[in-house]
Amino acid sequence: MNIAFWIISAVAVLGAVLAVTLRNLVHCVLALILFFIGIAAHYFLLHADFLGTVQILIYVGAVAILILFAIMLTHNVTGTDGPRELLGLKWWSGAAIAAMLAVVLTRAIQGDKLAAALPAGDRAQSSVAEIGKALVGGWVVPLEAIAVLLTAALIGAVVIALEEIRKSR
Amino acid sequence: MNIPLGHYLILAAILFAIGLAGALTRKNAIIVLMGIEVMFNSAILNLVAFWHYKHFAVPTAQLFAMFSIGIAAAESAIGLALVIAVYRHYKSVDVDEMRALKG
Amino acid sequence: MNYPGKGLVAGLAVTARNFVGSYFYKDRLITVQYPEERVQTPENSRTFPFLVYDESPDKPRCTACKICEVECPPKCIYIVMDRDEKGKPRQQPKVFDIDISVCMQCQICVEVCPFESIKMDNDFEKSKYGRFNDLVQHLPDLLKSNAYYLKIKPTEAAEVDAKLKAETEAKAAKKAAAAAAAAAKAAAAPPPAAPATTAPPTPPSGAAT
Amino acid sequence: METLYPLLHATFANLPDWAVRVAAFLIPIAFIFAVYPAIFALTTLVERKALGRIQNRYGPNRVGIFGILQPLADGLKILVKEDIVPRVADKFTHFLAPVLIVVPGLLVYLVVPIAPGLVAVDLKIGVLFALAVGTMSVIALFMAGWASRNKFSLLGAVRAVAQVVSYEVPTVMAGVAVIMAAGSLSTLTIVERQSGGVLNISNWYVFRPWGLVGFVLFVIGGLAESARCPFDLPEAESELIGGYHTEYSGFKFALFQMGEYLAGMAMAGVTVTLFLGGYLGPGSGTGLIGRLIAMLWFFGKLAGMIALNIWIRGTWPRLRVDQLMGFAWKILLPLALVNIVAVGFWHFLTPRPVAWMVTTVWLVVWVVVLTKCNASAHLEKREYRYV
Question: Which helix (H) or strand (E) holds D259?
Fold first, then answer.
């Protein structure tokens, strides 16, 4: 199972790196999908099966498609390569900030006592029934809040995207 | 599984840094959004890793992750709608060109 | 009674009837198992031209007059007249090529032929593996008997036959009349032999008169 | 893996443990890779013959007896065809799309049980897994359409994506009804919940009022998601040439066909599992004979669903794009939501006849309301002057 962790991690990191560095927008989205699938595989590895499928359903099935549609509505659809954005001052500063963050976080995690103290092992077992009971039990208010939020986001997105059309007519 | 929790945390940190780098360095608004998605996902990965190693007895962390995923979906929908609206206005999705507060 | 999806269900019933019916009633099936079963091609259907001969392939009706070669719009016909050793024309083609990759089946060659020699075939199985030379039809491929013509286009061939017969009879009658006149003339003058009643020498005699 | 292992372990006790483990891991994979593509090959032939009979033709009957070798001939022909990649195409994506399109279809079979205890992986979230993996084909479709650099391809891809995303919603909702009734996401458990009753048949979920509605919804959604006939707009030949696979030739084109058929068959398999009692039927059981009969039942039902697909393809005309979207969002989605409420009634109303009556009335009323609300404008019968 250790090998699985390393392979999946490599896939996820590769997907993330490609998603933010490739010049072609559509390629970026495809790399992002690779990253999403890698994260979903990690969830399966962590025995959070339900979250893994939710990840695929929502991120791969909905968010990625949404981004693709947004690209086709904004950019030229054939997806020609964008301008070369690397190696400017902005790039160096952004990369430096990110690298520093990575270094700081890694050092902090390595020095952390909790992470070192927790034993590695396969004790976690995801139970869909438990999640379901919790969702309609004690967590019903947050669930409904999320539902309202999603509805509001849906309506809001439609309103934002439609406004200019109405004006232009 | 013999992977310690630290590995997952470091992986999530690296992914977060990659997402941050994308959000900071790229000019295209859609790629900035994608960088934010990467950061979201690495954070949720952290949550699930902690659930697996420490709080596996209760499903709370999974619920939290699910709500985060739902919020991320709403966020990306709104963000992309904004990008489309901005594109209609400026005919560009370059974040450096969106400076005017006036429409 | 009207219910949602009524038309869809009715359509399903129709196709189900077709599906089952086609196994039990042969006459429902409209397709023909081609190489084994064939449908009679309509008499007026046409594909490419062929040459008609009467008795034997050595003597086609064609006289290599080259009218069709000149008239052919896409210029797909190539004719070389046959000559004997002395270089005298033999009134029949030595080479008669039709490039059916060029031929557009317009039937103009048939219209202009004065000897009812070139006719439209309805044989459509002419595909070949080669693209260029294989599609050029030579004299042996083109020559087909009058019996074949009668078979594929009975009415048209019968009309042509009747016309040719009438022509030869008219010619024979004319010849006979001419011979009779000559005989009457010769009766007064010295009597020569009168072998001019057979058909072959008609064109030269026609040309001579 | 987890389900085959104890079975093999009990049968071949003298083999070493690792061998049994490897066998338990490899046999389901080999089975899925061998059997379902073979069914696909057979389906292409049967479909062409059945469509021929529906149109009063013979169908292919030349290669081998009754044309049985036709799929082989088709495969050979398509293998030796030239593989053309457009000059401006995005080469890597263009290559990757037909490979990816086969994957989701094959993955779904992992959770479709074919006999008691015989399922490649008994996931606790089996149904959700099948539905989630099914959505991933969208990505491959989009990649194919986008990478071809062809307007028709891109239009087909956009249509495909919009259609699959729209029909995903009512399909999942229809599945939710079954999940609620069974109380489990595991496909094996769902099938087991349908056992019993008269001849092992009468407890199938399709013989419930909500099950019937859910079955119809699921079949329609499955047709739409695999872009089968009444919903084959993404590859509408008369409008879009070939849709997203316009620029594909040779074996890549064959992979697209295979991916579509595998996805359609996978949806049929999930439909059988959820609504038609999976492998259940008279004679199915846990012994060797019982398992064989159960497999016969499963593949028989699968064949029935495929036959239904072919019958529908031979009959119904293609929808218009606006009709397609309207149908998904205005009729199927409300009906699926209403259906979930009907399952709630079914669960809580105690005497069975009462539950039957209430759910039936509830569903019939809603079907009537939805059809009345969405009825198209009534057109007068047209009189023709020259008939």
Answer: helix D250-275
CA quadruple D90, A32, A87, A71: dihedral sign: positive
Among all chains, which residue has been given the structure tokens 């490649």? Answer: D120
D40-90: pLDDT as tens digits: 988 989 999 899 889 888 888 888 888 888 888 888 998 888 888 888 888
Q: In this predicted complex, what is the ipTM?
A: 0.75
Q: Is the pLDDT of residue C134 over 90?
A: no
Q: Which domain holds residue D91?
A: 83-320
Strand partners, C144: C52
> In this predicted model, what pLDDT tens digit does every residue of B33-85 receive, in sequence order?
889 999 999 999 988 888 888 777 788 888 888 888 888 888 888 888 888 87
CATH classification of the domain holding B80: 1.10.287.3510
Average pLDDT of C97-125? 89
Q: Do B73 and A32 touch (CB under 8 A)?
A: no
Q: Residue D175: count other Cβ atoms within 10 Å of its Cβ.
A: 25
Q: Give domain status of residue C38, yes or no.
A: no
Which amino acid type is present at position C32? V
Strands (E), C69-196: 77-83, 89-99, 118-120, 136-137, 143-145
In terms of pTM, does the model score above 0.90? Answer: no
Residue D332: which of D219, D185, D232, D182 has the closest Cα?
A: D219
Q: Which residue has the higher pLDDT, C164 or B93?
A: C164
**Cα(first)–Cα(last) distance of chain D, in Å?**
68
Chains touching C (at least 3 CB pairs under 8 A) are: D
Q: Is residue D23 part of a domain?
A: yes
Q: Containing domain of residue C122, as a range? A: 51-162
- Overall domain count for chain C: 1
Mean pLDDT, chain D, whole residue set: 85
D90 touches chain A (CB under 8 A): yes
Residues in Cβ contact with D138 at an 8 Å cutoff, skipping those fewer than 6 apart:
A61, A65, D160, D161, D164, D165
Query: Looking at the 3D structure of chain B, how many domains does it have?
Result: 1
Let me know if residue B38 belongs to a domain.
Answer: yes
Helices (H) then strands (E): counts for chain C: 7, 6
pLDDT at residue D215 is higher than 90 = yes
Whether the CB-CB separation of D139 and A64 falls below 8 Å is answered with: yes
Confidence at residue A85, expressed as pLDDT on a 0 to 100 scale: 55
Q: How many Å separate Cα C164 from the centre of its chain?
A: 14
Residue C205, pLDDT score: 45
Of the candidates C7, C112, C6, C131, the residue with the CA atom closest to the CA atom of residue C49: C112
pLDDT digits (tens, 9 = 90+) for D134-145: 888 888 888 888
The answer to whether the Cβ–Cβ distance between D90 and A61 falls below 8 Å is no
End-to-end CA distance of chain C: 90
Q: Write b or e for each residue in A135-158: b if 16 or more Cβ atoms lie within 10 A of its Cβ, otherwise e.
A: beeebeebbeebeebeeebeeebe
Provide the chain A residues 97-156 that lie in CB contact (below 8 A) with chain B: 97-99, 101-102, 105-106, 109-110, 112, 114-116, 118-127, 130-131, 134-135, 139, 142-143, 146, 149-150, 152-154, 156
Work out the mean pLDDT of chain A and round it to a whole number: 81
